[in-house]
Amino acid sequence: MVWVDGRVELKLARKLPPFEPGAGIMGNLYLSGQEFDLLCALPAAELHKRRCYFGAWAVDEFLGPLAGLVLAEVEEDDPEVLARMQPPFPFVRDVTAEEAYTGARLAERGRPRSS
Q1: Which domains does the chain have, with CATH numbers?
Q2: What is the pLDDT of residues 73-107, one digit of tens each?
Q3: Cβ 21 vs Cβ 83: under 8 Å
Q4: Do the beta carbons of residue 50 and residue 60 sit within 8 Å?
Q5: Residue 17 has pLDDT above 70, yes or no
Q6: Residue 98 and residue 112 in contact, taking contact as beta carbons nearer than 8 Å
Q7: Tell me, what DSSP letter sits at residue 78?
Q8: Distance CA 51, CA 58 (A)
Q9: Are 41 and 56 in contact (CB under 8 A)?
C-alpha cells in the first residue's frame, strides 16, 4: 500500500469466509521489503485497486481488467452496530455474502457476470 503521504506498507492479508453474513475474520502479516520481493516472485493471481476512506468505510476502485468495479466495506466488531450502519453514499447492491466478489475469486476469475 502506498499512502497519500508517500509511506509504503507491505502486507499479506487474508480474509476468511464469514460464519454468518457480515461476520468474517481478517488477518494481516506485515512484510519486510525482502519478504515482499520473495512473495512477488511466486506465480499468483493479482488484483490492483485504489482504496479511499469515507469515515469508517473503505471504498476500493479496481484497476486493470476489473476497471469500473467499485466495492465498499466497513469493519465493526459489534454486530448490533454493524447492522445499523449504512454507507454515506448510494450503492447498487450488497454483495457481502456473494463469494464471487471476494478478493480471491475476483483475482482468479475476473468480474462476475452480475456486476
Answers
A1: 11-109 (2.40.320.10)
A2: 888 878 788 888 888 888 888 888 788 998 889 99
A3: no
A4: yes
A5: no
A6: yes
A7: -
A8: 7
A9: no
- Rounded Cα distance between 92 and 72, Å, is 11
Half-sphere exposure of 43 (CA within 13 A, CB side): 1
- For residues 55 and 73, give the distance between their C-alpha atoms in angstroms, rounded to a whole number: 11
Quote the CA–CA distance of 88 and 70 in Å, as a whole number.
Answer: 15
pLDDT tens for each residue of 53-65: 888 899 999 999 9
Cβ atoms within 10 A of the Cβ of 31, count?
Answer: 15
Q: What percent of the chain has pLDDT over 90?
A: 30
Can you tell me whether residue 22 is helix, strand or coil? coil
pLDDT tens digits, 20-42: 655 667 788 999 999 999 999 99
Cα–Cα distances in Å, from 14 out to 26, 51, 113?
Answer: 6, 17, 24
Measured distance CA(41)–CA(106) in Å, rounded: 21
